[in-house]
Structures are given as C-alpha cells and as structure tokens.
Input
Amino acid sequence: MDSSIEDGGAPGGGAEQTDPAKAPRPAPTTAAPAPVPSPSIRSTVAGDVPASGGERAAVAPSSLSPSRAGDFMQCPLLYRFRVIDRLPEKPSAAATRGTLVHAVLERMFDAPAAERTAPRAKALIPGQWDRLRESRPEVTELFADDPEGERLAGWLQEAERLVERWFTLEDPTRLEPAERELFVEAELESGLRLRGIIDRVDVAPTGEVRIVDYKTGKAPRPEYAEGALFQMTFYALVVWRLKGVVPRRLQLVYLGSGDVVTYDPVVADLERVERKLRALWEAIERATRTGEWRPRPTKLCSWCDHQAHCPEFGGTPPPYPLPVRADESGSGSQGRMGPD
Output
C-alpha cells in the first residue's frame, strides 16, 4: 500500500496542489505507514462542540481547541455565548453535511483497500445519515418543512458529489491511515491545555507524520487562508509537544472546490503559534475574570444565531453566570488576535 506522506496518495491527473510554503517536494515514500505509538494520543469519536440548552452549570474555560480559539478571534462575545452561556444554536445544513461527509470518509477505511471505491462510499451515505439523526435528533429540523423530501434529496446528492470528488484528490486504495478522528490533548509548560480532533494522521515508515483535514467547502483565496492554516498548525503544535516530532506535512483537502493545499511546518512556525495561543488564552482568562466580553461586528454576524442577545443588534446578553473580579493585570485588550 502506498500511503505516501509526500504525494497524498493522489492518482495521476488529480487536482493541482498549492503549497503556501512553496517548499520543494521530496521524492515520495511508498511503504505502508507505521501506527502512531504515543500513549499520550488517544482516539475518540467525540466532537468539539458547545453544549446546548444550558443544562450544565457554567464553569470557567479550562482548555482551548482550534474552533473555540477561532470563536474568540472572530468575536469574544460569541466565545462567551458558546463556551460559558452554552446558548443553543440551530443546526446548519452546510455544517451537518460536513459532519455526514466526514463520517463517510472515516468509515471508508474500515473496508479492505480494494473495496474503497466511490460507489461504495456513496452507498454509505444513507446509513450514516440515519446514524447522525439518531445521535443528533435536532438535525431533523433542517427538513421539517420539506414534506416531499425534495430538499433532503438535493442535500444528499450534494453530499454524494463531495464524496465522489474526494476520489479525484486522493486514492484511498493506497492509504492506510495510522489514525482517524484522532482526539489529541496536550498541556503546555504555561499550563494551557490544548485539545482537538484530527481527521486523519498518516505516518510513513521513516516516522514522518502527515496531518490531513477534510474541508467540505471551497478553498479560500490566499489572503483569507490564515484561519485554516492556524487550525492545522494548532494540531501540529499539539503533536509536536506530545511526541517531540514536527509533522512533515499539513494537508487540507477542499472537497467543495477540488483543491489540495499543503504546508510543511518548521519549529519556528509552531513556536509562533504557541506564543499566539498563550496570548489568546491570557485574553480569555482576563475576560472570564472581569465578565467583559466585547462583540466584534463583522460580515459573519449575518450567520450568527445570537443576534437577539448581542448589543450590536439591540439585544442583551444573559446574566453573567460566573463570579466577576477586578482585572488585576491591567485593562488589557481584546483586540483581534488572528494568526501571524
């Protein structure tokens, strides 16, 4: 089996790959990968999603994931609503389809290599949709006003198209992932605990690690690519701190546009993102102490479920559920803290 770290297992004639680092690509390895040996990395199917309904008592944040870091960088008040207030959110058709497609791609590797075909993958979609509805009944709200099932049929067809496109970008018959849907967690020297779920980890016999993330949307223009790269370097940092190995390659597979974007990190990249995360966490801790969570209006507000509670839209946030203390470290700032 060819689970090459270098070529992504892509068949000839696949989509052109863009590399932000513009690093030269060494010759591919061709042997099957070795498993990830670290006992500090464990697998789980649990997702990193905020709780809904407010049934659990509010507690101060204790760890940081890429999605929650992204929330704070986008809008500190959104972070509060999701992490501390745990306000419910309506299911999104796009996000739910992404969850469905991810489940299908993960399950594909349960089959022998020769049976990992596009028709088989498409055949998995109905069953995975049933499982998703069982585990998250709220997703049925997406098609509550679709009695004839026309919108649902179109939605499932789009999921099929995304799954089919994957086979033009990677060849699963040549891949034997070391891990799938891998939960990783590490505590930095500063005490900050980082956690997240990696879609796929490939490990070559030489020990080179490739981290792969599936995206069901389209690849962003280069000037807007920082968010996805931040997520991947976040994962690379966790793996580095756990295993002492800098991943050889970070790979984003954009099923919506048929692009594969790769980046080869170096130690300086990971040290930079670690500094960024420490500063970000200090800002989160300060806001948690003081109760000052400032909204940051952007074009993304149009998709926010919490406008009724947001001062920018005339709303009032719920009563702050945590104790409030004076900020002993100074006024500080919750200005934008995007990846640099």
Remarks:
- Residues 6-54, 335-340 have pLDDT under 50 and may be disordered.
